[in-house]
Amino acid sequence: MAREFTVDRQGFAESASGLTIDLGGVSNRQTDLVIRKANDDGTASLSGATFTLSGTFADGSTVKTLVTGDDGLAIPATEADAIRGQLLVGNGYTLTETVPPDGYGLPSPASVTLVIAADGTLTSDDAEDTAFALSSTLA
User: Alpha helix (H) ranges present in the chain?
Assistant: First the structure.
């Protein structure tokens, strides 16, 4: 006997009374991106750099602004600029340094394109030609 049913976006079956559906295990981790601004040889963290990250985010926004603190780590300029859990797997994002730290100029080029791979790692086709160093770590 065949039974037809539809599974909606939340994984609930419609028109399947009395039918148990096992959708399998799903692992979902929040995406995140850590940005650190350092001098040319990486020995000193630099504060005061401003970055924009553009693309399509989970909250529907298309631009996030980040500013580096004393530790050189970029933090959201406002609460709405938070990027944890906002990066969508498979989407491309452009990270651009828009304001350099005091005493420094903008790198050339000042942007790099990033893609969040299906396994959560960060990839870039153009990072080798920029002043940006990329690394991926999975929690």
Answer: none
Sheet holding 50-54: strands in order across? 74-76, 63-68, 50-54, 92-99, 111-116, 122-123
- Give residues with Cβ within 8 angstroms of 66, minimum separation 6: 35, 50, 51, 52, 53, 74, 75, 76, 77, 81, 83
DSSP code for 136: -
Residue 5 Cα to chain centre, angstroms: 36
Structure tokens at 3: 């039974």
CB-CB contact of 123 with 135 (8 Å): no
Please, what's the b/e burial string for 69-94 (b: 16 or more CB within 10 A of its CB; e: otherwise)?
eeebebeeeeeebbbeebbeeeeebe
37-75 pLDDT tens trace: 888 888 889 999 999 999 999 999 999 999 999 999 999
Residues 103-125 have pLDDT tens digits of 999 988 888 888 888 777 778 87
Identify the sign of the CA torsion 39, 43, 44, 45: positive
How many CA atoms are closer than 13 Å to the CA of 15, on its beta-carbon side?
5
